[in-house]
UniProtKB/TrEMBL annotation:
This is Saccharopine dehydrogenase NADP-binding domain-containing protein. SUPFAM superfamilies: NAD(P)-binding Rossmann-fold domains (SSF51735). Signal peptide: none annotated. InterPro entries: NAD(P)-bd_dom_sf, Saccharopine_DH-like_oxidrdct, Sacchrp_dh_NADP-bd. Keywords: Membrane, Transmembrane, Transmembrane helix. Residues 10-135 form the Saccharopine dehydrogenase NADP binding domain. The chain crosses the membrane at residues 283-305.
């Protein structure tokens, strides 16, 4: 897009918990010449956030806009090259901003872990975004950049080594950190949507529900996100047990969509899943079983409660509230390490490592989202020319990888 807009980047939702963390990160990481604005519903709260950031942010703009005010969002999108948004659940509040950015040709990055939202965005705005050149990039936090870029880097390495296409590929997640109130609220929004329209459950259940071309979906048999097994079944180097990873159902769809957006370059027999490490102790099998069963039970109970007003009120009382989060000390003590084990059609084996410090849902996510926004704003000449409703790897690929490495994250691929 022509460089005639008032801002390079607008952070929408800047007064929320993750929004403030992202603003702090942008303050440290953005170029001095960057034209940044903070956006949200309350001018007083935006002013307070900017004041708390200190004198360096004194020149940042403030934009008042509500997530339900289409005219205000249209005006916001027209003023900037990029919008970064933390305002969720996106299924409830996100689509008007997608519409505004698709119309204006404005690049966009969010933190959604909601396949229903992405599917609706694809159906409603993908073609318009392609026409205007807008990159609408979903899932630019811990969900799902480590997953998406890890497999993308594996693919790039197999091309360099000429070792064939990817086949069986498994990500093993290890982390220390909490689940945010926003993530839980997103889950509730999807449960409520399915309760209102049971047909939407197919989007959640089908591994290729975000596919760009249903006729090209690989026929590799059943792929399940449920797990309970010894880690050594994935790779002999691993010890202990693995269980179901709570975000696997979303992340795997993002990775498969990337494959489709790039022309199915990962391979016609690419099979992908994600699991979570349950440790090596004697009680690890019980922990793994409890994790797997607890996730299923929790999702089932939440779905049932979401069907009635009384159940939703009960969930309101017992679940963490959106916009809340852990202390600075707790955020800094967190970490994550994602190892992805891959095989190719020639028999070659690889392991990709994507790791970082800080609570993955907060501290690390602020880095991932912030760098995504900066990448979209300043690295357009280094990115694929794709536009539309995109994934992080398909939209930014090597450019985002380079930025995250420079920001201190470890992203490597080794041949086993």
């Amino acid at each position: 897009m022509a460089d005639t807009r008032e801002y390079d980047l607008v952070l929408f939702g800047a007064t929320g918990f993750v929004g403030k963390l992202t603003a702090q990160y942008l303050l440290a990481a953005a170029p001095e010449s960057a034209r940044i604005a903070l956006a949200g519903r309350s001018l007083d709260k935006l002013t307070s956030v900017r004041d708390d950031l200190g004198p360096t942010a004194a020149g940042w703009g403030l934009v008042v806009a509500d997530s339900t005010d289409q005219a205000a969002l249209d005006a916001l999108a027209a003023r900037t090259k990029v919008v970064v948004t933390t305002v969720g659940p996106y299924l409830r509040y996100g689509m008007p901003l997608v519409a505004a950015c698709a119309k204006a040709g404005t690049h966009y990055a969010d933190l959604t872990g909601e396949p229903l939202f992405i599917r609706d965005a694809i159906d409603a705005y993908h073609e318009q975004a392609v026409a205007t050149g807008a990159k609408i990039v979903n899932s630019c936090g811990y969900d799902s950049i480590p997953s998406d870029l890890s497999v993308y880097r594996l693919y790039r390495r197999t091309v360099e080594d000429n070792t064939g296409e990817l086949v069986d590929t498994t990500l093993v997640a290890s982390l220390k950190g909490g689940v945010s109130g926003g993530t839980i609220d997103s889950g509730r929004a999807m449960m409520e949507a399915i309760a209102a329209d049971p047909a939407k459950g197919k989007v959640m259940a089908h591994p290729y529900s975000l596919s760009p071309d249903k006729t090209m979906d690989p026929d590799v048999g059943r792929q399940s996100d449920q797990a309970l097994s010894r880690a050594s079944a994935i790779d002999p180097s691993l010890d202990g047990w693995v269980s179901t990873f709570v975000m696997a159902a979303h992340n795997t769809k993002i990775v498969r969509r990337t494959n489709g957006l790039l022309g199915w370059v990962y391979g016609k027999n690419f099979r992908y899943r994600e699991v979570m490490s349950a440790g090596k102790s004697r009680v690890a099998p019980l922990v793994a079983a409890g994790m797997a069963g607890g996730i299923v039970a929790g999702m089932t109970a939440g779905a049932l409660l979401s069907r009635a007003a009384a159940g939703r009120k009960l969930l309101d009382r017992v679940l963490p509230k959106p916009g809340t989060g852990p202390s600075e000390e707790a955020r800094k003590s967190g970490w994550f390490s994602m190892k992805t084990f891959a095989h190719t059609t020639s028999g070659a084996k690889y392991v990709a490592t994507f790791s970082g410090s800080g609570d993955p849902g907060y501290q690390a996510t602020a880095v991932l989202l912030g760098e995504s926004g900066l990448c979209l704003a300043f690295d357009t000449d280094k990115q694929p020319e794709l536009a539309g409703i995109l994934t992080p790897a398909a939209a930014m690929g090597d450019a985002l990888t380079d930025r995250l490495r420079a920001a201190g994250m470890t992203i490597t691929v080794d041949r086993a």
